[in-house]
Amino acid sequence: MATIRDVAKLAGLSVATVSRAINGSGYVSEDSRKKIDNAVKILDFRPNEVARSLYQKKSKLVGLLLPDISNPFFPLLAKGVEDFLQAKGYQVILGNVQENPERANDYIHAFSQNNVAGVLSAVDNDYAFYNSVHPLVFLDRVGKDSEYSIHADDVAGGALAATTVLKRKTKEIIVISGPKEIDRSQERLQGVLSVLNQQKSNYYIINSVSFLLEDAISTAQAVFEEFSQVDTVIAPSDIHAIALIQEAYRRNIKVPDELQVIGYDDIPISNLVVPPLTTIHQPAYEMGYKGAEMLYQLMNGQKVMQKKLILPTRLVTRDTLRKKEVQ
C-alpha cells in the first residue's frame, strides 16, 4: 500500500507539500498539484481518512449500526445509505450488532475512535451509550424519544395485512407477534389486531422472540405443533413467512389451498420462493437513502425540515393467499 512518502518521492516534492495538497491546508502551485495528482494515480494512493479527519477536524466517515445483516431487509436499507453518502464523498463503517446490546456498545466506541462525522442506527434506541453520539439518526427501529428518525407506517401496514387476509376465506387465524421490545413490531401488531377486533374475527397470537432466522424457523414449527387446524397466518416479517412456507412444505401442507400466509417487508427473495409471497412492502432502500440525507444535513449544519419522517407501506399481491371471496 502506497504512503504519502511514496507519493512525495515519485512527484519529486516534499512530504509537507504533498500533505498540504491532499488536505487542502495551504498553498501548492499548479505545477506541483499536477505532479502530485499524477503520482497519486500511478500509485493508487488513498489517504488515511481517520488521520486526515483528525487533522482537518472534519470527518468523511459515517457509522451505520444494523441489527442483523443476515436479514435481507437491512442490506437493502444499507444500500440506500451508501448510495447517498458515497455520492457526497463519505464512506460508511458498518456495525453488525446481531441483536446484541454489548456489540452495539463496542461499535459505538469504535465509531468514536475513528472520528466519525455522524451515526445512522437501526438498533433500538433504549441504550445509554447513544448519549455520546451526535449527530444521530434512527432508521426503522425508532423509539418514542428519537429526535431524528425515519420509519415505515407500521400501524397502517399491519392493518393492511389483516384487511387483506379477511377478504379471503379463513378458519383459524394465527397472528405471529414480533419481539415485544421493538416498538415497530408492536405497532405492526397493533394495526393487525385493530382490524381483527373490529371485524370480531377469531384469532390466536404466538410470540417470536426476534427476527433472526433461527427464531423464525422455531416459531414456524411451534405454529404447526400448537395449532393443528391453522389455515391462515399473518407473519411479522418475510423471514417468518418464508419459514412457515418451508415448514408447510415439509409437512405436505399446500400453500395457499390449505395454508395461506402474508408476510411483511417485501425483501427481494420474497418473489423467488415457491409460491411467491404476498406481503406488505416497506421501503427499505428509500428509508436508508432519506435517513442518510437527513444525517448529511445535520453533519453540515443544514436545517432539517422534518425531524420524524414516516413512509407509507403498500400491499404486494403474489400467490400465498387464496382468491378473494365473492361478495
TrEMBL record:
Matching entries from InterPro entries are given as:
HTH_LacI, LacI/GalR-like_sensor, Lambda_DNA-bd_dom_sf, Peripla_BP_I
SUPFAM superfamilies hit by this protein: lambda repressor-like DNA-binding domains, Periplasmic binding protein-like I
Tell me the ranges covered by the HTH lacI-type domain, including all copies: 2-56
Record's superkingdom? Answer: Bacteria
- Which molecular-function annotations from GO does this UniProt entry contain? DNA-binding transcription factor activity; transcription cis-regulatory region binding
The protein's UniProt keywords, in alphabetical order, are: DNA-binding, Repressor, Transcription, Transcription regulation
So where does this one cross the membrane?
A: none
Pfam families tied to this protein: LacI, Peripla_BP_3
Q: Which PANTHER family match?
A: LACI-RELATED TRANSCRIPTIONAL REPRESSOR, RIBOSE OPERON REPRESSOR
Q: What is this protein called?
A: Ribose operon repressor
